[in-house]
User: Which sequence fits this backbone?
């Protein structure tokens, strides 16, 4: 059976954020950062209207994930559902990547119009968004190691170590069941790995996840019956009632025509609770072909050449992600370098209110996590009408943050220049500004440059945080590929190497500046030279400095 | 020995205090154009402060200083430094060159660029003119071959000579030196002092704070002895060293008799 694969998962579709950023030269981005860029520009030449939908490719199988056969393509049962809904509505499904935790804020922020990615219909969620009628109903599944005898139900788990996703329905179910030692995870793969190697005694996950991440694993077995019940719906903004009506109409149509049933059969996701939900008690209409394809790719007997071939296939994706990482980092650094200098000058030479403001800024920024700052800029500012594209928000967030650190580097540089230098320049008739500009600053920069360059290496790594504001950078791409292939190890090494390669020129630059600047400033010791110089000059405070 | 000339420097009732006390107490002195004056005195008596007041590196509290027609003066009752005062100070610095005890050449610039910088920045000289001038001055202090070197590669004596050339590049009317040789190894002292003698021969007005009594006695037109923030005595070197009038002078000079004899 030929599957229509989701084409919007092509590079263009994934790289939602990259589209704005790729063409931009970092400095241009700086200028852009100053004017407020509203949202992401639409590509005009669409025959059909776009149905923009948000999901997280890192969410994993079977919901949506990179096709193991070609990681450039996004597949999953929810991808197929969205596509059928769009077809029914005469629209074109357009995928927008966003982190799972932020799917609802992203909806509010108009990054997309609907969101589908295992979003449970809960009272809390319903306060913020509207849900379509449920397209899927499922339950929680307890998994243990094959040799485990002591656990057959949730009640047996109170004194055991149980793993699940953080802040999930399963987590709260475990809390309610009185399980004392709950370990929470960001993703299911690591949880199941820990179960297998004995760090956990059991895991509790949504049944689809259990089926896809342990169902084919002979070391793990399912115990106990269905626990709890949850329904997934498509989330929409409260005000979009007309779209909600149309989406519901489409879901009802797909259910009644049996199309949804066939999707679930292929993905091996039909179950008695689904039969209940759809009032459809007929036998399977199709073989679980997609599940088998998935299981095939999880086989451990994978030769080295095959593995290397797979990694080679990763390179285009990782390459694009590396470009995003680099663009964000370069632009943010440019911003940090300029703004940092302004801050340092304001702090040291500005009149007291200006100086105090600079200190306040520096301390405030250094005292709050950059992650919070990014969230605030991307999701918070729209509340007061400032809507920035992910790229601009990422550059601003990282740039404003690093500016505070660079300011301190510059300050250290400025303070390292002996006062006698300023005095010597003033004695020659230069004004304070001329002395700063021609004598003090050039020397300060020589001291500051090595730490500034070193900071760039950290910025390169911190840029991974932009994945929380929908950008697909190297770290995000790593998560996507690793969940798809159940392979955090090899992919991890590959990504680490790319980070090293990206950072390498800057490591060299930092070394080089360190050497160069040391020679230029300190040179060979001279009799009566710098040593006594500093001692004599620093104790005094000339009126003119 | 004494040259004829109009007073180029006129200092009247110069007072200066720091938080921990009065450092200069009613200092008054006239110095004629072309004079080479040595200032001696015990440590902490205010010699450096006196020099620094002359080129406004420290602002005087009260009194007045006139050098080459530029006057800075305060009565001691002003609330703050006003604009005309600061402008006079800026002008004063352009007229008065100063060389410090410790080398403060700009380490990131070559010797030539050190000498050229202020003329380029302050006087807006053309680069060609500034270079020509700088090379001439470097030749004068014996550093023609060191123009392209960085300060860190110079000996202490060479560095001080470069500092003198740098100050001369602004065409000052007066040169001040604050113990220019006391950080130097003994064998390097003379090459620096020689530069001052050469300048003296050309008619430059110079004030040197120094501990080199032999130089003070032989090279200067007269010597000023300071103690406790005051000018105690001012006289020809030979007179001061052989028959000082003041008991404090005699006491101070006792330590140096071997050196000068
Ligand atoms: N910027 C300043 N702030 C406070 N006190 C100062 C300052 N500069 C000088 N003083 C004090 O003023 C007094 C005179 O100092 P000054 O440097 O003029 O003495 P000096 O005669 O040059 O001594 P030396 O021979 O050791 O160089 C000293 O007590 C010194 O501590
Ligand atoms: Mg002194």
Assistant:
């Amino acid at each position: 059976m030929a599957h229509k694969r989701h084409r919007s998962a092509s590079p263009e579709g994934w790289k939602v954020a990259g589209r704005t950023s790729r063409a931009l030269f970092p400095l241009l981005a700086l200028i852009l950062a100053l004017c407020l860029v509203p949202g992401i520009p639409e590509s005009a030449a669409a025959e059909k209207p776009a149905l923009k939908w948000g999901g997280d490719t890192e969410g994993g199988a079977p919901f949506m994930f990179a096709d193991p056969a070609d990681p450039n393509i996004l597949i999953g049962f929810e991808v197929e559902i969205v596509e059928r809904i769009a077809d029914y509505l005469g629209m074109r499904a357009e995928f927008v990547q966003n982190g799972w935790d932020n799917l609802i804020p992203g909806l509010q922020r108009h990054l997309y119009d609907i969101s589908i990615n295992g979003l449970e219909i809960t009272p809390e969620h319903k306060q913020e968004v509207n849900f379509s009628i449920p397209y899927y109903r499922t339950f929680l599944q307890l998994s243990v190691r094959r040799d485990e005898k002591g656990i057959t139900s949730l009640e047996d788990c109170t004194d055991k170590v149980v793993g699940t996703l953080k802040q999930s329905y399963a987590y709260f179910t475990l809390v309610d069941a009185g399980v004392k030692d709950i370990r929470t995870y960001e993703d299911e793969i690591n949880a199941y790995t820990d179960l297998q190697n004995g760090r956990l005694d059991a895991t509790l996950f949504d049944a689809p996840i259990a089926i896809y991440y342990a169902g084919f694993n002979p070391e793990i077995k399912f115990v106990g019956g269905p626990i709890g019940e949850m329904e997934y719906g498509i989330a929409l903004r409260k005000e979009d009632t007309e779209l909600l009506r149309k989406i519901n109409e489409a879901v009802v149509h797909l259910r009644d025509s049996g199309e949804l049933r066939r999707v679930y059969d292929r993905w091996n996701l039909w179950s008695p609770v689904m039969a209940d939900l759809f009032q459809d008690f007929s036998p399977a209409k199709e073989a679980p072909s997609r599940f088998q394809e998935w299981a095939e790719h999880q086989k451990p007997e994978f030769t080295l050449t095959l593995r290397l071939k797979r990694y080679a296939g990763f390179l285009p994706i990782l390459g694009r992600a590396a470009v995003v990482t680099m663009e964000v980092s370069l632009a943010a650094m440019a911003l940090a370098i300029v703004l940092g200098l302004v801050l340092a000058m304001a702090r040291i030479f500005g009149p007291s209110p200006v100086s105090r403001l600079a200190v306040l800024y520096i301390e405030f920024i250094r005292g709050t996590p950059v992650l919070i700052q990014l969230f605030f800029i991307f999701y918070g500012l729209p509340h007061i009408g400032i809507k920035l594209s992910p790229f601009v928000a990422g550059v601003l967030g990282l740039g404003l943050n690093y500016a505070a650190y660079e300011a301190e580097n510059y300050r250290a540089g400025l303070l390292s220049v002996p006062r006698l230098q300023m005095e010597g320049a003033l004695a020659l008739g230069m004004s304070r500004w001329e002395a700063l500009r021609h004598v003090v600053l050039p020397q300060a920069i020589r001291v500051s440059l090595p730490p500034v360059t070193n900071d760039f290496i950290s910025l390169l790594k911190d840029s991974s945080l932009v994945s929380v504001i929908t950008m697909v950078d190297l770290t995000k791409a790593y998560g996507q590929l690793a969940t798809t292939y159940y392979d955090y190890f090899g992919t991890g090494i590959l990504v680490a190497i790319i980070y090293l390669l990206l950072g390498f020129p800057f490591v060299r630059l930092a070394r080089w500046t360190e050497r160069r600047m040391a020679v230029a400033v300190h040179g060979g010791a001279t009799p009566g030279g710098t040593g006594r110089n500093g001692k004599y000059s620093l104790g005094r405070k000339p009126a003119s400095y | 020995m004494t040259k004829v000339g109009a007073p180029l420097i006129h200092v009247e009732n110069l007072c200066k205090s720091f938080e921990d006390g009065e450092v200069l107490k009613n200092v008054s002195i006239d110095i004629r154009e072309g004079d080479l004056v040595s200032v001696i005195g015990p440590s902490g008596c205010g010699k450096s402060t006196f020099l620094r007041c002359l080129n406004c590196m420290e602002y005087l509290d009260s009194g007045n200083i006139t050098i080459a027609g530029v006057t800075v003066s305060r009565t001691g009752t002003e609330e703050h430094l006003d604009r005309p005062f600061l402008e006079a100070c800026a002008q004063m610095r352009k007229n008065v060159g100063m060389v410090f005890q410790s080398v403060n050449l700009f380490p990131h610039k070559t010797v030539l660029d050190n000498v050229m910088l202020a003329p380029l920045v302050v006087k807006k000289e053309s680069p060609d003119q500034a270079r020509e001038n700088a090379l001439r001055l470097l030749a004068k202090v014996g550093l023609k071959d060191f123009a392209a070197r960085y300060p860190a590669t110079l000996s202490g004596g060479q560095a001080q000579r470069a500092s003198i050339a740098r100050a001369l590049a602004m065409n000052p009317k007066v040169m001040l030196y604050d113990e220019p040789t006391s950080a130097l190894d003994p064998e390097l002292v003379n090459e620096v002092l020689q530069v001052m003698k050469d300048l003296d021969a050309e008619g430059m007005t110079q004030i040197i704070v120094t501990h080199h009594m032999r130089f003070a006695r032989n090279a200067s037109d007269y010597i000023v002895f300071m103690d406790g923030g005051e000018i105690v005595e001012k006289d020809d070197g030979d007179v001061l060293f052989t028959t000082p009038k003041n008991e404090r002078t005699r006491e101070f000079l006792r330590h140096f008799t071997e050196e000068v004899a």
